[in-house]
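Subject: design request, 280 residues
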């Protein structure tokens, strides 16, 4: 914590008793630091995140393996992060990019997630009650929650029973906050060139978000879902939050679920999101 120049290399962390809510929350846990490098590491059975980086600037996570955690790799409230050439397998959720309130450093921005193998993250969620990752439904590849300036590309995102990639504002959690400077919206997102392949099964029914996916799309896991919650302060238009998706798979399952209006107008057309934002 509070360091400048951290390297964590070839370190393995695990809990010998397997998945348990009483396990430690994190395998690797650099926070509030600058110039962080994690490479060649392995983390398993953490009750929050196997590889977690929080409130840091200039972060690289590469060539690492996260499995059997609740969250495989989590980037939280960070500025300028790169996550590449990792394997996230058999976690509840593979890779999470979150921006949360009530933390000393908020409103992270700028994350690239690419060339990762994010597969079969269908493990049961064993997070302790009240933990934010406790909302993640088994069968989740990537979640971008209140994230800004994120590019997700050239990843293998396969074998998930609920959702490949979720794009959501913090409002989807239905949790309140008192942090006046917090920005709960997700915007400036570019998802392109990934390979999606769904698991042939019913979406998760153990968590509310999984139940929602199954309610909206019965028996059909989704590739990319966007909650559609907009910031009214941004200029009006068909895509005010600058969510850009360029995927060539004709069988891609995408939807804007219109969460702000009780899911009344679910839209499956990708055309409004066929753009390429200028990211920092």
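Subject: RE: design request

Done. Sequence follows.
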């Amino acid at each position: 914590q509070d360091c400048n120049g951290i390297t964590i290399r070839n370190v393995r962390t695990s809990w010998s008793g397997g998945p348990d809510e009483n396990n430690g929350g994190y395998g690797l846990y650099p926070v509030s630091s600058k110039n962080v490098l994690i490479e060649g590491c392995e983390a398993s059975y953490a009750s929050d995140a196997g590889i977690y980086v929080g409130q840091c600037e200039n972060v690289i996570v590469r060539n690492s393996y996260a499995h059997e955690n609740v969250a495989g790799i989590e980037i939280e409230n960070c500025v300028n992060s790169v996550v590449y050439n990792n394997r996230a397998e058999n976690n509840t959720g593979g890779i999470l990019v979150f921006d949360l309130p009530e933390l000393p450093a908020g409103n992270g921005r700028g994350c690239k997630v690419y060339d990762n193998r994010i597969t079969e993250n269908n493990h049961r969620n064993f997070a302790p009650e009240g933990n934010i990752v406790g909302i993640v439904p088994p069968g989740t590849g990537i979640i971008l929650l209140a994230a800004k300036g994120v590019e997700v590309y050239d990843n293998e995102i396969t074998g998930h029973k609920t959702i490949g990639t979720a794009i959501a504002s913090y409002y989807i959690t239905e949790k309140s906050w008192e942090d006046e400077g917090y920005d709960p919206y997700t915007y400036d997102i570019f998802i392109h060139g990934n390979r999606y392949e769904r698991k042939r099964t019913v979406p998760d029914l153990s968590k509310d978000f999984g139940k929602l996916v199954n309610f909206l799309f019965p028996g059909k896991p989704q590739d990319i879902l966007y909650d559609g919650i907009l910031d009214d302060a941004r200029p009006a238009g068909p895509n005010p939050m600058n969510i850009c998706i360029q995927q060539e798979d004709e069988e891609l399952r995408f939807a804007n679920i219109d969460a702000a209006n009780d899911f009344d107008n679910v839209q499956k057309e990708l055309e409004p999101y066929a753009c390429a934002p200028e990211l920092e």
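The mean pLDDT is 96.
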